[in-house]
Each structure stands twice: as structure tokens, then as C-alpha cells.
Amino acid sequence: MTEITVHGFVSFTLAIILLFIGKVALMKSPTLRKFSIPEPVIGGFLCAMGVGLLYFIFDWQISFKLDVRDWLLLYFFAGIGLKSDIKTLISGGKPLVILTVLATTFIFLQNIVGVSIADLFGMDPKSGLMAGSISLIGGVGTAIAWTPTFVEELGITNASEIGIAANTIGLISACCIGGPIAGYLIKRNQLKTGDHGTLDIGVTHDASHTSVDYYGILWAWLWLNIALIIGHFLDMGLTEIGISLPKFVSCLVAGIVIRNVFSPMFPKLRWPGQEQGLSLISDICLGMFLTMALMSLQLWELKGALLFLSTVMAAQILISVLFTIWVVFRLMGKDYEASVICSGFGGITLGSTATAIVNMTAVSQQHGAAHRAFIVVPLVCGFFIDIINAIIINFFVGF
User: Transmembrane segments in this chain: where (predicted)?
Assistant: First the structure.
């Protein structure tokens, strides 16, 4: 086997090209726009398929150095915070609680499905947890973190392969189901869509251009960097007192504080084009992050335990779609905001926070803004789900 590592600068440049490919494909294809397929998915997945073919045909294992990827996610969430009005946050209180309860319920459901199908295949039932909330809601980092426990204490030697493969399938699926779910709900319920002029991320597909000047971009960039600096120290402080949360949560909170506490105190420190600058930078950062996440997928990890993975992931995707349409949409209010939240729920349950947001971005660019959704979903993903998931996983492992 020939192992090839692509330099970080080259990887970043390739990601730009792939994002261009996705954007052009979306512009040229009414079908892709109709189902709100995210732009990064197109180029990123094409790259992953190409790398997979090189592995299977020529035995080349290509990996990308993606050190910049995590910084892009921090910029994105800092931008979300800087555009978040406190009134919207307060109005999102009840939906925040409801969505947290729904996501918690789904964690139990997801693990029960994983354990049951593993038992059906004659495997250790607990191995199904690696194709449950560990790898899907928790993500690849959680899967890797739990692998030593499953291998050394439970004797499940292929735990890592199951977890990484399930996460790969889940991430791809989450990117593909969000837009169609929202489109179906909007059409079936004839929902009144949002304002196309005030999107949280990016611009609408039918916008010919967006007006952003030099100072608008520069001011936005400055405030984003300040939010990242504050977020870094906030993260350090939380770690010191024993609270461990994803770093993007600290950057999100820092952005919210700057927007709602510092900015009103110094209104002259705002440039007219700053909001457009934030939208543009956030859109690029999110698109680049997900493109880089997808292009780095190692599809050959799927070849182990293929029949089990096909069965369990088909079941996980099916219950995610049904739960979203019949439970989440109804309890979140049966309005346009609820449909956008539903587009992100697949990201919460099958992919990642970034997947949830990019799904919602694709829908809002097609149908209009949904401000509350862009606050509620990141807070549920970042603040609550990781903690709740860890508690529930411990319950299932010790059962």
C-alpha cells in the first residue's frame, strides 16, 4: 500500500476548488436546488469518492492535512453569535427546551435500535452502541474516545471500525436528508416562508449580488477575531473549573456577548456593511469546513461488517426521518421555523453540528430566513447534547 499525505496548504486550495464545483453544480441544477442539497456536499463527496477509487484500484491511501479546518468552524460560530439578538434568544427559550427533550429521547431510541440489530446479527449487543449515539450524535471524536473501553473492557475488537464507518455513513446521509425533509414539510403544509433579505448565513440563490464594501469585511473580520480571543479565554476558564465543552460553544457565547452587551454600549464602532461581511465570511467558513470534512472521509472503512452496517444504518436513517417529520415538526410548532429546525435535526442525530447548520443554511437560502432556528439548534448541539449523550452512553455500557 502506498500512503500519500497531502500538505495542508494544498488541501486547503483543493477544498476551495471543490467548493467552487459544488456552487457551480447547484447554480446549474434546478434539481439540486429543489431539494436544498448543500453546496459543500457535492464537491466534498466527489473528492471522497475519487480518493476511495484510488484506494480500491491502485492501493493508494490518500490523507489530507486539515489543521485549518477547526479554525473555520470557530469563525463560523463566532459569526452566528455576533448576529444573534438577545430578543431572539429569549423567544427561543421554549423551543430550546423542547428540542433538547426530543434529542434526548432520540438518543435512547437510537441506541435501542443499534443494540437490537447487533443482537439480531449474533454480535455483542453493546457493539451496536458504536452504530448508535456514540458515533452518530457523538461524532467520530466520541467514537474514538470510547474505543479503548469497548476493546479492552468489553472485548469488542472491531469497535473502532464500526464507529468510524457508521459515522461516515451518517455524515453523508445527514447532508442529503435535511433539505428534502424541509421541502416536503413546506410543500405539504403550505408554510409561509421567511424573509429573503435577512439571512443568518450567506445569500439567497436568486440574489444577483450582495453589497459588501472593504470596511464592512474588515470590521466583520476584526470582531470575529475578538470573539475568538474571548472564546479562547472563556474555554480555558471553563476547563479550569472542570467543565468541558466544544470550543465552538465558547466562541458562540463570546459572539453573543459582544453583540448584545458591548456593541450597544459603543454604537459608533459599527460599520454599515458589517452584517453583510459577517454573513459572507460565515458562509465561506462553513462551506469550507464541511467540504474539508467530507473530502477527508475514508470510504474504505465501510468494507468491514458491511451487512450489519447496511442494516443498522438503514434503520437509523429511517427512524431519523420519521421521527423528524412526525414528532419534531409537530412539537416545534408546525411552522416554517420548525421545518428549518427539522432540516437540521438529521445533522444533530446522524452527522454533526456543522452538518445541521449547513442543512439549515441551504434551506434558508432557498426559502428565507429562520433566525430562531439558527440559535436553538447550535445551543442544543453544543451545550446540552454532548453532556446528555455521555450520561446515556454510560447507562447503556453499564447495563
Answer: 6-26, 38-58, 96-117, 129-150, 162-186, 214-234, 246-266, 278-300, 306-329, 341-362, 374-397
304 band by pLDDT with thresholds 50, 70 and 90:
low
Q: Pseudo-torsion of CA 199, 200, 206, 207, nearest 10°? A: 80
- Helix (H) / strand (E) containing 131: none
DSSP 267: T
Distance (Å, whole) CA 66 – CA 296: 8
Backbone angles phi, psi at 127, to 5 degrees: -65, -25
d(CA 74, CA 249): 9
Cα angle 360, 365, 370; round to 5:
55
DSSP strand E in 20-176: where? 60-64
Name the residue with cell 456593511: 273
The whole-angstrom separation of Cα 250 and Cα 262 is: 16
**Are 124 and 154 spatial neighbours (Cβ–Cβ below 8 Å)?**
yes
- Geometric angle at alpha carbon 118, from 116 and 124, rounded to 5°: 110
CATH number belonging to domain 2-398: 1.20.1530
Cβ pair 340, 200 in contact under 8 A: no
What is the pLDDT averaged over residues 30-40? 75
Whether residue 267 contacts residue 19, with contact meaning beta carbons closer than 8 Å, is answered with no
Considering only residues 113 and 271, tell me which one the structure prediction assigns the higher pLDDT: 113
pLDDT digits (tens, 9 = 90+) for 310-351: 899 999 999 999 999 999 999 999 999 999 999 999 878 887
d(CA 240, CA 232): 12
pTM as predicted: 0.70
Q: Residue 208 has what pLDDT?
A: 45
CA nearest neighbour of 294 among 92, 18, 99: 18
The one-letter amino acid at 42:
I
For the chain, the domains span 2-398
**Is residue 130 within 8 Å of 305, Cβ to Cβ?**
no
